[in-house]
Amino acid sequence: MQIQRFSGGFFFDDSSNRLKELFKVNQTEVVRFEPEFVAIPFDQHIGAPNKLVVAIGDQVQKGQIIAKSSADISGHVHSSITGTVVEVCEVPALGENTQTAAIIRRNQSKNHTESLIDANFSYEKAVRAAGIVGLGGATFPTHVKLNPADHIDVQTIILNGAECEPFIASDDFLMQKESHKILRGGEIAREILEAKEILVGIEKDKPKAIAAMEKAANKVKNCRIVPLPVKYPQGGEGQLLETLIAAESPLDGRSVETGAFTINVATAFAIAESVDERKSLTHRYVTITGDVKKPQVIYFPLGTRVKDLIDACDGFYGTPSRIIHGGPMMGKTITDLDFPLTKGSNAIIVFNEEHDGKVTESPCIRCNRCVEVCPVRLEPQNIDLAYRNDDLFTCDQLLATACINCGCCTYVCPARRNLAANITKAGAAIKNEKEALEDAK
Ligand code: SF4
Ligand code: SF4
Which ligand has the nearest atom to the CA of 423? Predict the structure, then answer.
């Protein structure tokens, strides 16, 4: 099977509404998947690399640290099953890269969960010990985010349940099933940051999630569920702040400067589990949809391979042409079905040959549509052009690093130019150059 490489944004024809129906997840019960093997990458966060602390042949428990974080901006990685470390090797990563992972084989006779987080730990220490990172896709360590600079006065905790990318239902399902725990995570964040209120933003097309969260919110002081317009990218931090508290988020991404602290609902859920149940982050919900025979949301142990989850959905429907990790707008194509899902995984979407909108780039016609849709008011066509000319200086002047990689510019471009992917690459190159300059000082 040939799986095309792709990065940022996604082209599909105007059958997207039909696809929404076809790819819809209809389920009421939690589906748990427990594979025989997991491949757990050591680094599943933004920040400094972890150090492997187990060896081949070691017996590990579910929840035990296998890759330890030492720097502040990093997060421990734990075993997601009880078993034996059978190999340490390279496994597929996003793009053309590989990553180092511990392969763990399940011990069928022992699958108990033991609390491995010290009962005396403070809230902040428990969150750090659990290895929690932003589960909305950012994977920034949550314990760092919960410790903003002294001058910042956080008034509002915002729980992001927008889940605005098409086809994804992971947070929707989580909110229906775990509303109390999600709000408990919000309360813990509120206590740590001494904030006043909790706001939960959920797009209006998730009525079951809104109903469940409203019911749970009745028991929480100063907590409101706010139904949001169904509009991509409503779940972007800046867009959410604009809608919920009419605040403009700084372009450098430090949205907490507005006095609002935003986390995804799945992160809030993980915070509650770490504090109240002393559980490490070992599992999460993922939507497996698109051209698979049985689209569903699955609760899976971190390190589960894509191919095992596709099998759990009764296999492909038709001949797969493109498989995306994440949503169709911001996700990235994966090229190897051995790819293991990690903390940052919320969806796998399969497009078969019939539904994969293949396109060819043509020259920019200066129509300005990309500028009109950009939620952070950038000039995508000019950044793209500068990047193609290897002109990172101009990319920097045009604020390429402020791009939130929403993919809107790519989606609307009539010339089908791969704007979002190039702008993301430009932003990464600028950051690398600046870091190298800092290191050289
Ligand atoms: S340039 Fe703007 S529209 Fe394009 S991906 Fe970045 S933020 Fe989105
Ligand atoms: S939308 Fe495409 S064609 Fe139009 S200005 Fe932007 S890059 Fe050029």
Answer: 1
